[in-house]
Automatic annotation (TrEMBL):
InterPro entries from the UniProt entry: ADC_synthase, Anth_synth_I-like, Anth_synth_I_N, Chorismate_C
EC number(s) per entry: 2.6.1.85
GO biological processes: L-tryptophan biosynthetic process
The UniProt record lists the keyword Transferase: yes
Domain (Anthranilate synthase component I N-terminal): residue spans on this chain: 22-144
Source organism of the structure: Lacipirellula limnantheis
GO molecular function annotations of the record: 4-amino-4-deoxychorismate synthase activity
Gene3D superfamilies registered for this protein in UniProt: Anthranilate synthase (3.60.120.10)
Pfam families hit by this protein: Anth_synt_I_N (PF04715), Chorismate_bind (PF00425)
Keywords on record: Aminotransferase, Transferase
Domain Chorismate-utilising enzyme C-terminal, chain residue ranges per copy: 214-466
Domain of life of the source: Bacteria
Protein name as it appears in the record: Aminodeoxychorismate synthase component 1
Length: 475
């Protein structure tokens, strides 16, 4: 460590080039509030980086009670912005805020009614401030351990903490197994059943839903009626699948990432809850004040035969319904970005391109813009959260209808797993294909966008296409 005093902050030390991100995650998995931004499906554009962080120096958690849950997080972020430091040649997240923004955070941003049942009571927001990050560049096959030295801001004290924390994490990563953080079991107890919202058995062993098949189809019909009445153009409606926990959350995530790899996969330990996500969808990215959002609308299940799989993709690309559904959300996201981006900068980079994942094919669009000088990433979140692809359009009315028709709180589902550096760099997923583990249960909601042409039977089948990869990890 003798060379470190002359090094600029944050301190950055290369990790062995052969060390996989998943190995670093497993070595740190038992530290408080470990978070893993996991590019499990590699792609030069979307799956280039992975990050592991743990043991935050500050922690903020807020319930879904309608209060301004973002205010405390924004205040913490602003406290350290003047002391931000980043190396331009390293991966973009080098320390800062990271955590969960649940779908139910929408009640902090708009006047949305509470759902009928909030049985599992996950937080609306849970965010840590992380001063040490293991960062992996899969394109360059390089990795670093980065230490900021925060929350110390006095130069000598900050450097001393940066050195100490760097050495501590190196011991955990490279020491003997006895010095590594040992994963702990968090299967919990399933004795909570009597407190749950009504459940309906499904044709998979041990899986129940908060809606029967008939009730889901009726919910779709109600959504279509609202569209014909002129209330909305589109609404996303979901059923919540539930299964009693049968392994640790860590083991569940390792199975999920193996069987359903995704570019926006991730794991987050909130304490009583763990997020296990195989999301394919980016919500928001900010780099040098350039904003990008990648809404997904339009889905087909994969086939085991190449010919049928190719046909499924061609069918999706040619579907007027699915393309119209995607274009509606693109227009919504353009409007959201225009609230905080310069008007001349907001544009469509990609429209309805076919992308293929382990169990489904999607239509994906890209909208870009540049933040106005007076706007911060928090202004962007307030203007656009939650993502339009998982609400509908117009967004507020769609969320009101979701609260009316879906019986239970969505919790993390359709929220975001996000990081926000003190330099303003941000990346946020949309938490679809996501299992929330806690209180003895695994919950995995699945849904889809409803438009005027939607057929209830087709929409119900689509939810099971989307659940396939998660169920492979559970059953």
């Amino acid at each position: 460590m003798s060379n470190l005093p002359s090094s600029p902050l944050p301190l950055a030390e290369p990790l062995p080039s052969g060390m996989p991100a998943i190995a670093a995650f497993e070595r740190l998995a038992a530290l408080p509030h470990v978070i893993f931004f996991d590019s499990a499906a590699r792609d030069p554009r979307l799956g280039r980086y992975s990050f592991v962080a743990a043991d935050p120096f500050a922690w903020i958690e807020r319930p879904a009670d309608g209060s301004d849950a973002l205010a405390a997080v924004e205040a913490l972020w602003k406290q350290f912005v003047p002391h931000s430091a980043a190396h331009a040649d390293l991966p973009p997240f080098q320390g800062g805020l990271a955590g969960l923004l649940s779908y139910d955070l929408n009640r902090s941003l708009e006047r949305i009614a509470a759902p009928r049942f909030e049985d599992l009571q996950t937080p609306a927001l849970a965010v840590g401030a992380y001063d040490v990050v293991a960062a992996f560049d899969h394109l360059e096959h390089r990795a670093w351990l980065i230490s900021q030295g925060l929350p110390e801001v006095e130069p000598a004290a900050r450097r001393e903490r940066a050195e100490s924390r760097l050495a501590e994490f190196k011991r955990l990563l490279f020491g003997s197994p006895s010095t590594a953080a040992q994963p702990v079991g968090r299967t919990g107890s399933s004795a909570l059943l009597k407190e749950l919202a009504p459940q309906f058995p499904m044709p998979m062993l041990g899986v129940t839903s908060n809606l029967s098949a008939a009730a889901y189809r009726d919910m779709v019909r109600r959504g279509v009626e609202y569209i014909h009445a002129g209330d909305i153009f589109q609404v996303n409606l979901a059923q919540r699948l539930l299964h009693a926990a049968t392994s640790t959350s860590l083991d569940l995530y390792l199975r999920l990432r193996e069987r359903n790899p995704a570019p926006y996969a991730g794991y987050f330990d909130l304490g009583p809850w763990q997020i296990c996500s195989a999301s394919p969808e980016c919500f928001l990215t900010v780099r040098d004040r350039q904003v990008e959002t990648r809404p997904i609308k339009g889905t087909r299940g994969r086939s085991q035969t190449p010919e049928a799989d190719l046909f499924a993709g061609d069918d999706l690309s040619a579907s007027e319904k699915d393309r119209a559904e995607n274009v509606m959300i693109v227009d919504l996201m353009r409007n959201d970005l225009s609230r905080v981006c310069t008007s001349e900068s907001v544009h469509i980079k990609q429209l309805c391109r076919l992308e293929t994942y382990a169990f489904v094919k999607h239509l994906v669009s890209v909208v870009r813009g540049e933040l106005r000088p007076e706007c911060s990433p928090f202004d962007l979140l307030r203007a656009s959260f939650p993502g339009g692809s998982i609400t509908g359009a117009p967004k507020v009315r769609a969320m009101e209808i979701i609260a009316e028709l879906e019986p239970t709180a969505r919790g993390p589902y359709c929220g975001s797993l996000a990081y926000l550096g003190f330099d303003g760099t941000m990346d946020a997923s949309i938490l679809i294909r996501t299992i929330t583990a806690g209180r003895g249960w695994w919950q995995l909601p699945v849904g889809g966008g409803i438009v005027a042409q939607s057929e209830p039977d087709d929409e119900y089948r689509e939810t099971w296409h989307k659940a396939h990869g998660m169920l492979k990890a559970i059953l």
